[in-house]
Amino acid sequence: MRIVIVEDEVRIREGIAKMIESQTEHVVQGKAVNGEEGLEMVLRFKPDLVITDVRMPKIDGLEMVKELYERKVPCHAVILSGYSEFEYARKAIRYGVDEYLLKPLDIDDIKKTLEQVEQKIRREEMTNGTPGLHLRNLITGAEKDLEKNCGILKDICGFPADGEYELFAGYIGSAESLYREEAEQAVKELKEKYRELKLYYIYIENMQKGYLLGCGEKGEEKLAALEKSVYNRLILKYKDKPEKAIWTRKRFCCPEEIQDAARELDGLLTYALVLHPDGWLDAGQAEQYRPQPFAAPTPIYHQIRNAICREDMQKLNQGAEDFLEYMSKGHFEIGEIRKAFIKSYYLIGDTLQDIEPVRYQHLREKNLLRNLESAVTWHELESAYRDVIQAIEGARTKREDISNYVIKRALNYIREHYQEGLTQEEVASVLEITPEYLSTLFNREMGINFSAFLKQFRLSHAKRMLKGTDQKVYEIANAVGYSDPKYFQRVFKEEIGVSPGEYRQMK
User: Which burial class, exposed, middle or buried, applies to 326 when counting CB atoms under 10 A from its CB (0-12, 13-18, 19+)?
Assistant: First the structure.
């Protein structure tokens, strides 16, 4: 728990703080010498518990607790009193005081009292919950009983029924990794600066979104000042960075509107895919966006597929760049943009699955489709797509990363001579080893025997040529090492399940 101690006798005040910090895991946030200073500390630090003496100068402990109660500040309280003040102190029961401790204090009594208060807080969290929990439930729609949830928020937060509220929503997933921590620190500073306002901040991990709710009395000028401060600390400071959060906001007048405001702001944040705001992302910007009819970039899709089939990494990268440029300049519907990226991913995957299953599996293991589906900003979507292209190149490098030097030489020889009537004996002779030793090395390093590898290698090139060229089947058969076209067609159908001609017609 976070604790503030209010006691005018320095020996007792310091003694309680020392006992708590040395013998418990609780944190003493502040120590005040009277009720006036204590009230200010509680409002500033928002602790879980205040421990206060009764008799003190300026404002005594009971007056301070009463003030907190009337302001509906969510803070537990423990009263310290001498025997003669005990009955007087018991009057504080109407202000929700949790416990009374008689002086002189005993460490065991303090520990026991703190345990009781902590248990009470846990029970409250399980029943009513914290303000952040109820705000989260409203925003995510987890709480279906809107009226009940808003009623609880009014009680535990002291929200006025007719006040002024502003909800800020920010997508943080597109910012640098330190931004989340910096944003939380900025919110702490804002709470310190705007003590007159009620400020609550939550971060929803799976959505990578932060929500800051500010509340003040109607006509409160501080709410407008808060908006400017949020802009300065969370937007302007990061304006020139390529990776930055996207923020929007909405003003309304009662807690019952929180959920609708959150949904409206979530809808606005989806426009981060097509809009690149320097400041706030506003409803006006979204309304002015005029999407054009979508036309699929079919020639670019073919360009990418043919580059994969021919193992032309340069043309593959150029096709990816052409695709990104087409999509970024098209001014299409947000849904159409995402669908086009996903379609391109599946086209790449299907092509790899056809011609090289190992590389296809490598792509799937990267789980990059999820990044395309969940991207909120254009920068994220573009980066996710580049990762797909990079994964294809990475799989090619991985495939060639064979540790055994002899096998590397064998693979190089196969690549150079696979069009010829190549045999295991010929390769072994070139490498100056026995065919049996080459067979052993192949099985150990490649997980497949020589003949099966050579057949897969030839058919892989045949599939690329069937998809990526207009050459006739007999020409392709000869180009990949089969002098007999009929034999080639029989082997192809046995391995692939369809004839070369049927495979060429498949999309």
Answer: middle
Q: What angle do CA 218, 220, 221 make, to 5 degrees?
A: 145
- Alpha helix positions (H), 401-498: 405-417, 424-431, 435-446, 450-468, 473-479, 485-496
Q: Is 445 exposed, middle or buried (0-12, 13-18, 19+ CB in 10 A)?
A: middle
pLDDT of residue 128: 46
Q: What is the pLDDT of residue 137?
A: 78
SS3 assignment, position 428 = helix
Span 264-310, pLDDT tens digits: 999 999 999 999 888 999 999 999 999 999 999 999 998 998 888 77
Q: Whose structure tokens read 């003694």? A: 15
Whose tokens are 């937007």? That residue is 235
Q: Which residues of the chain have a pLDDT value below 70?
A: 83-96, 122-130, 142-146, 155, 158, 160-161, 220, 394-404, 507
CA distance from start to end of the chain: 63
List Cα–Cα distances, 303 to 4, 251, 346, in angstroms. Answer: 68, 49, 15
Residue 202 · residue 137 · CB < 8 Å: no
Residue 73 CB neighbours (<10 A): 20
Token pair of 119 as six digits? 């248990």
Q: What residue type is 317 in one-letter code?
A: N
Residue 453: which of 485, 427, 487, 479 has the closest Cα?
427
How many angstroms separate the CA atoms of 413 and 431, rounded?
9
Considering just the CA atoms, what is the radius of gyration of the chain in Å?
A: 35
Cα(184)–Cα(139) distance, integer angstroms: 18
DSSP string of 226-295?
HHHHHHHHHTGGGTT-SS--EEEEEEESSGGGHHHHHHHHHHHHGGGGT---SS---HHHHHH--PPPP-
Compute the distance between CA of residue 3 and CA of residue 6 in angstroms, rounded to an integer: 10
- Residue 71 sits at φ, ψ, to 5 deg, of -85, -5
**Which pLDDT score is estimated for 397?**
47
Alpha-carbon distance 318 to 306, whole Å?
12
Residue carrying the six token digits 């949904």: 263
The whole-model pTM stands at 0.57
E strand or H helix that includes residue 161: none
In terms of residues, how long is the chain? 507
C-alpha 205/C-alpha 209 separation (Å) is: 7
CB-based contacts of 360, cutoff 8 Å, min separation 6? 349, 352, 353
Residue 293: exposure state from Cβ atoms within 10 A (0-12, 13-18, ≥19): exposed
